[in-house]
Amino acid sequence: MKAVESQKKCDGYKILKNLFDENTMEEIAPFFKYDEIAPGIICGFGRIKGYHAYAFAQSLDLSGGMMSKSQAFKLMKLYSLAEKTGAPIVGVFNSKGASLISKNQALEAYVKISQKCCQLSGVVPQISLVVGMCYGTMASVVSCSDIVIITKDGKLGFDIGGENSDAEKSCIDGTSDIMAENENEAIEKARNLISMLPSNNLCGNRTVEFNEQENLNISIANEKNKHEIINKICDKSSFIEIKKDFGKHFITGFASIKGKVCGIICSNPAVLDCADYDSCSKVAKFIMMCDSFSIPLITLADTQNFSSINGASKIFCAYSNSTCIKLSVITGKIYSGTAYTALCGRGMQDLIFCWTTGGVSALKPQTAVEILWKDRLHGDGVDFKQKRKELEEEYIKTEVGAIRSCEIGLADYIIYPDETREKLALALESLENKRERTLPKKHTNINM
To answer: Would the pTM count as exceeding 0.90?
Structure first.
């Protein structure tokens, strides 16, 4: 009993007490040891913002938090319980690595944990918090989770002290999803995510309490700051951004609209003018994560170019194979068949809205005028530059506008920008009972 009481004073136990709601935490196998080796980890279950969840925390002041057969036993017990009950898992990582006493037994432990983590991917949400050191094989396990939160002084990489293990770099290269100032902020972010994500892949999407937006009559058509547009469409202070520093052409994150949780994907051409490979990878993973848990997806499309064929194909595959609710809003002029197909494609999206300021064309106006209106452009006695400008303006007005896009079936509805929130809320409600079957197969052979 003295050993158990002393464990309650360790850092890992304190973290879990702060993670779980007050007086709800129960520790799993607190007395367990293997060959008298302390596990270096605290495992438990309880409630997080009222929802049942499992969590573990490696602790440097318990055998260095090192991986061993003893630690693996407790982790496997926790994963097994989470699988049986369909509850999310939060892992807190801070370890010196593998126990040298356990020797090759630690390798066997890594295999079992990696396998179980991947098997539960898409079954229950898995959130990892890196609050200290996380190196080697365990760093790979962390990256297999759905969301990685790292503190500013956290270290995540293959090599101890490696130059690419800093928190900032792990966010830039997309390994970590969210950076927190400190341990307490990381815990609070994890608690907020647990309250928004479904407990498992079989239960319905969450409906949460929300604060109504103010100043809804303010037009958002001219907002260049896409974060401001997102904040005005979604419930007040509900947006949680994922991978902020990676793949900057797109903004991704979770929010709620009239209390209904959804995933947000928003083009951000003012920061990066084309969708590069990293941006596409970021979006594809986010789509698959939302679809795994039937979280509705809302895409705010304003993309002109893709710089990576493989990247674009990732988005094609992710959207094509997803069966969750999918709504797209064309917020600008899209002059690219690839961009339209990837982000707003008919058949991939359930409903497509187009702002009065938006529109779609497979060709850029300059190209379209040169090909389609060549005779008018190169007529005798024509001021070429002036005529090109006039024809481009005519093409945009007659062939690319919102009305024309709806007439030819590229969009379903024309809406004013300040109507977006209400229209999306109504669409989410009307599609709430959506059911869609897919072809029987093991998995899609997506470009990695």
So the answer is: yes
